Amino acid sequence: MLNIEILIAQIVNGLSLGSIYVLLVTGFNLLLLVAMIIHFSFPVIIVFSIYMSWIVMNLTGSLALGILAAVASAILVNMVSAPIFQHIMRKRGSVDINATMVISMGMGMLITEWTSHAINNGFPISFETEAVDPHGWLRATRAPFIRAGLVSISYSQVLTLLTGIILVAALFWVLYKTKAGRAFRAIAENPDGARLVGIPLLKTGVQSYILTGILGGLTAALMALLLGQASPDLGDQLGHKVLGISIIAGLGNLGGGLVIALLLGIVEAIVQGVFSGGSWSNTVAFLLMLVIVLAKPRGVFGIKL
Amino acid sequence: MSATLSNYLTITAIFILCTWAIYLPYRMGQLHFMMIANMVISAYLGALFSGAVVSGSQVQEAINLNLHWPFILTLILGVVVSGLLGYLISLAIGDAPCFAVVIVGFAFMYLTKAIAENTTALGRTFGMFRVPRIVEGLSNSQNRLFLVCVCFFFVLLVGFWIYRFDKSKLGRAASSVFVDRDLAVSLGINVKKMGSLLQTASSALGGLAGVLYLYTLRAISPSFITFHNVGLFMTMLFVGGYTTQWGPLLAVPILWGIPLIMPESLQVWKNVFYAVILIGILMLKPEGVITRPLLRRLNNLVFKRRLKPAGSGKNLS
Question: What is the DSSP string of B73-137?
Fold first, then answer.
């Protein structure tokens, strides 16, 4: 059984993990609302960015360049994929969300397979080596920030949580308090109406790819900080979870996504604390998703499409 | 018949069945990946009931059903259980949107995998092996030939059934749901019942393919449940063409065969090859290689039929 100290520690763990999920789901929903694509492989792009960051850090030993590489690669892949999605939509005559999901799955396969064969011979990568982190900054974040009895919260968890909160707050500020954000929301509410009032759909769509690219790159940096390692198939599993969270919350529902992502992170962490094994936490997560989706296929908070 | 050829033919037939299992619910716009989980569930059931051996040291704790069911009984069991599972789930997601069906499929896949990997009685990650031959008493080559015949018999049977379905009112109703769900509802089509029927059929087909796969490899492990296999079947469906049943018949032998004749150094890149083809085809021919207009043109070409111009007489009635 969990005692109260372990429960608190696991809740903090869960919040750190949940803040990553929040970033992933928000990026996913943003692309869905503005660009009208179900970018199933958005988490795969993030894992790819982690790999790019690892390569740059391996070559230069610079943390700043590593973060820059993560952001740049996420924006680049997003921008490269944009014309493919646009082409599909044009070809179909109208926006076909299912087709965008299938093509995104194809992109995910491509990126995952390439990563697993071309980088580090398919072995998982670690950020906690001398070559990648010569100054030992990342390893230093593993040290406990707070330790009280059985409760141990590391600097990396606190940093991830705080940065996650700041990033989500910044994103919501952009969405709800800026002109560009109003354009995003207008397109999400009514694309034809948005066009009528003079909002450029294409330009705003491209902006959403750039914004989600920046968000993806920073999420990649946070994931590297929190996990300290990555493997090629991490993106697939995250992809399923992000789609699951988004569906449970209600596709395109930004606020709902935030709540469900945090809850899922906490539930996973608590299950991990109870069973002390990674496999069961995923099992419980998918079981929960299955039950909720079966009960409410259109989401708990309602679809916002 | 050589082992390589029979293996290629058998797996091709099984993958055609798998691709049809995804094709059926996609007739009304639902990507139902639960068939992959059903495939593995029916294969495990087949292994348990046919008297297969549990891998590794866990054998002591294995479920010893001491049953040696013949192939046909395990096949029926696999199809019925998978169909039933599909039906029960379809009661909740029969009319759900495509993405909800996708996530149910994935969740089911992961649950099945996690349960198989953590259950000692099922051999954990190593699974079960030494599944009996399809017909005891025959030699290896005779058994292989028999299995090829059985697999293609089911391809013909299921293919005929899907052909009849596509030509029926139900098939047209499914197509109309794909094109415009709201219009289909207003025309009186029960989307939930339609989804339930197609998802149940898809699951049962998955079960059939699972038992055939089990007897082909004579082993089963949770490693079959991967995102790669989802991608593989999806590529076969979307490259061949998802609007007719003939697409998978063209795509599966080619897409499954090409990596086999690739140089060994390139074979590890086969999934990259599949992904590139999938993206390329979706960009160039969004409905896949074989489409309905293409079939009509081929039909006209082969049978020399020509449509009379509009209003030219009684033949148009």
Answer: HHHHHHHHHHHHHHHHHHHHHTT--HHHHHHHHHHHHHHHHHHHHH-GGGTGGG-EE-PPPSSTT
